[in-house]
Write a structure and sequence with these properties.
Two copies of one chain form a homodimer. Chain A is of the alpha+beta class. The first copy, chain A, has three helices and four strands; from the N terminus they run βαββααβ. The mean pLDDT of chain A is 96. Chains A and B meet through strand 1, strand 2, strand 3, helix 3 and strand 4 of A and strand 1, strand 2, strand 3, helix 3 and strand 4 of B. Strand 4 of chain A pairs antiparallel with strand 4 (91-107) of chain B, so a sheet runs across the interface.
Chain lengths: 110, 110
């Protein structure tokens, strides 16, 4: 996965997912990779940026063309199975926020 | 800093800052810590979540009560000095997005 998402001009939507991993592995890496692959095939997917540190704290930002695209991805059958496993064993806590991106810029050019 | 921000009910605003560090240290850690401390003292600041991995890719999410609060923080004199140093030596690339949080939930309770 590329480090930075090449998103279009705003407006578009972002899902902000901040999570703390448990120490349970149990196939997490393969499922996480599969979810990125699957998300990237969904209608309205615009990109993803994801970081997790050595202490298991992670932030994943996924970008979407519309709230409808986010709703469809949330309801995707294989994604729902992964969501349930995440709640049950892979995450001790997460915060999930849906936001409308209104402005964007990049650097380091000043 | 706590791992998760205790944000109020939406709507509120988020600044999404995804960045790749260079290998230049030159006081980065102290300035980064100071910016979190200073941001947290600004009017309208609601919280921050931040992760950086061993390869230097990081995502920082800061939460704000209004676009005006974000504009004031962006224009803060000490913050502007840090921004310039970031562009000049600390970041090889960054993407900065401003978004309106419309919905939020948390887990793992299902």
């Amino acid at each position: 996965m590329a480090s930075f998402a090449k998103t279009p001009e705003p407006p578009y939507y972002a899902v902000l997912f901040t999570s703390q991993r448990t120490d349970v592995d149990d196939g997490y890496g393969a499922v996480a990779d599969r979810m990125v692959e699957l998300a990237s095939q969904q209608p309205g997917f615009l990109g993803v940026e994801s970081v997790r540190d050595a202490a298991g704290l992670g932030i994943t930002l996924s970008y979407w063309a519309s709230l409808e695209a986010i709703a469809a991805w949330r309801a995707h059958a294989e994604h729902r199975v992964a969501q349930a496993a995440g709640r049950r064993k892979w995450y001790s806590h997460f915060e999930l926020r849906v936001a409308k991106v209104e402005r964007a810029s990049s650097g380091p050019a000043s």
